[in-house]
Design a protein that fits this description.
This is Thioredoxin domain-containing protein. It comes from Embleya scabrispora. The protein is α/β, with parallel strands linked by helices. The chain folds into two domains: 1-36; 40-167, 3-Layer(aba) Sandwich (Glutaredoxin), CATH 3.40.30. The chain has helices at residues 2-36, 40-43, 66-69, 82-97, 115-121, 136-140; strands spanning 55-57, 63-65, 72-77, 102-108, 126-130, 148-152, 158-162, 173-174. The strands form two sheets. A six-stranded mixed β-sheet has the order 5-4-3-6-7-8. The chain starts with a helix and ends with a strand.
Length: 176
């Protein structure tokens, strides 16, 4: 009988130790996952940076440059990005509420794959489809992921960036 009691005690201690280690591993994995998520600062130029000069042609044939945009709400999208599909309607709603700012939407993909996004954006924004590997706007804004949103002022300085277009109404901040 004493042998059985000792075995139950040892087994109970081992189970509690295993449970404690499991909670520690789960906590560590969650911390790594949260830390590895890219923020807006990782996807494009940071707040305070100046967008280099660029020239691009919109889907309506208009040539745009940094100097000609003025204060602008912008968004970069990819047709193969699920988050882009989810946030596109929010970008459209935010763009409709904008007053005094122009709106620029840049789609990285070919004309065929971006057709639905162009249709959703063409009434509220100047839309540029960048299919070539050079991607002048993507390079100018230092885009490394999608979707990426922000605001530039009339001098081409980034005043706000974020992953959620609805949180870009006030200038000079970074949201996640």
């Amino acid at each position: 009988m004493p042998f059985l009691i000792a075995a139950v005690v040892v087994l109970t201690v081992l189970c509690l130790l295993n449970l404690l280690l499991t909670f520690g591993i789960v906590r560590k994995l969650r911390a790594q996952r949260d830390h590895s998520r890219p923020g807006a600062a990782d996807l494009l130029l940071s707040v305070g940076s100046t967008v280099p000069h660029f020239s691009a042609v919109t889907t309506t044939g208009e040539t745009i440059t940094r100097e000609g945009l003025g204060e602008t709400l912008f968004g970069f999208f990819s047709p193969n990005c699920r988050a882009c599909t989810e946030r596109l309607p929010r970008f459209v709603e935010t763009a409709r509420r904008e007053s005094g700012r122009s709106v620029l939407a840049v789609l990285h993909g070919d004309v065929a794959t971006t057709r639905a996004q162009v249709a959703a954006l063409r009434d509220i924004a100047r839309v540029v489809v960048e299919a070539s590997p050079e991607r002048p706007l993507g390079t100018a804004f230092a885009i490394t992921g999608y979707p990426a949103f922000g605001v530039i002022d009339a001098h081409g300085t980034v005043t706000a960036t974020g992953l959620d277009p609805e949180r870009l109404t006030a200038p000079a901040r970074t949201t996640t």
